[in-house]
Amino acid sequence: MTKETYSSPIGVLNKAVGNGNAAVLLERIVFWNTRKKGGVEYQGRTWSYRSQKEWIELAGLKERTGKTVFKLLSDQDFILKDMRMGGPLGNRKLMMHVALTDKTLALLGGTHLAMTATKAELAIQDYAKTAQKAAWAEKPWAEQYAEIHADE
Question: Domains of the chain by range and CATH?
Fold first, then answer.
């Protein structure tokens, strides 16, 4: 595997996500979730919130593309999203709260600077292995035994 170094985190995110628009939106979410005053702490995660329209405008996307990209990022387990009331008291409105998943945090290695494509690929592979191990552990013992001894 060749080591490709990107000067921008968008290159790494694009390689991991496989979609340039999704990489741009994810980079904006990463930026707002890693700032000191980037959001609110809830369920052990930092959640940043804006209206869906504001998130889409931050990434410079059209509305339809932005909605598709949010679905892609959520379906591929790069972000968690939740529609809740937010904003200052007296001006609360429905906001899209967005948090980074463990998969994204592993991909970024705790920071979104100076990442390599190789590290991104390895982080995704490690995440997939962990998910497989968790699925295996949930299987009944008899199924596990049968799979281990299937070749005998």
Answer: 9-148 (1.10.10)
